[in-house]
Amino acid sequence: MAKKIVALFLSxxxxxxxxxxxxxxxxxxxxxxxxxTTEKGEDSGEEITLKVFDAxxxxxxxxxxxxxxxxxxxxxxxxxxQHAANDSNTxxxxxxxxxxxxxxxxxxxxxxxxxxxEYAYDWTEDTDVTSLFNEDALETGxxxxxxxxxxxxxxxxxxxxxxxxxxxxxxxTALPTTMSELEEACKKxxxxxxxxxxxxxKETWVMGQLATHFIIDKELGAxxxxxxxxxxxxxxxxxxxxxxxxxxxxxxxxxxxxKPLEVDWETSENMLANGDAAMIHMGDWCQSTxxxxxxxxxxxxxxxxxGDGAEDCTLLSSCNWxxxxxxxxxxxxxxxxxxxxxxxxEMGQYWMCEGVGAVPGVKTEKEVKGALANDAKTYIADGKTxxxxxxxxxxxxxxxCGPYLQAYMTGDMSAExxxxxxxxxxxxx
Length: 429
Prior knowledge:
By secondary structure, this protein is of the alpha/beta class.
């Protein structure tokens, strides 16, 4: 969800109990989910360790429960999980470079995922598995040859999150749909003694994702805009809403905390949930964290105003994260089973719907707990969404371009210099 998200969570293995058994091989068995088990530590009397890399900081309690249940169904199997929400790309690449490729791992779909498809198991012929997913979600895991090399996690929606109680306190009765209306809302919030915007400007990934609202040309869509920028057919200076990105950053500095570049994602979410800030830029993947800060927080989605018309006000939506099974895993069948389990089983759906509060990519009628995800459905139905562009942008987009926007906020780069830097990065990629 996009992945997504960002403080370092390196957990030791989330292990319930590790059991081994000796004796004659018992052959295939069914676990509690009715799935035929093809590999168990008890079959050989040896403990099996399945290495998993997961780039999420949300729903960790539910994830731990899920691991415990899987281990219980697979005596002698230990699931060793590295949760790495901060610098996940760097950490994963480091493991790959050292030859320590996880058995199961997730990355952002699109450009990032394709870097790892040479290591990926091909699910194309496993129609009993692929048929469980929504087709549009499944499409995010295809390689350039149309092969299904990864399986989708959840739909993620991104825009401005706002505290409804703060808006009510400030007397704001209509959501802002233009840049000028957004500025007026900020003035009212400040007059009411509320910090209007707590942009997590310390996070380069947040800055990069924020910019994509202002990059997308609605007439071209995310993919069309990306290709036009890469080819040079379109320049950043020509983008219809690009200059408003800097106006938004100006508002974030004028109406935000005194030291905006010291605000990380956790701080901003805490401020929003507890009414200390009225708006942040984030996605609905943070629902569980917001709930942990204040389960009674009255929050909603505000499509990001990027222009002078309400029609330009957008929410970005996509299946942003995708799971890959290492085709060369020593325990391939077990790795496939685990990947299918976390994405399609009742426990997996519980993790996604309840723990994370997001709509799964798998077909399900399970109710989604997250208010933000449900709020987003309205905008999706009304056509108030665009696709995600940062996942199909040139490699390392947020790592490279996020700091340019931070430099603008510190005064170290002008808007013109940032624009040129974005242009050079995009065309070089």
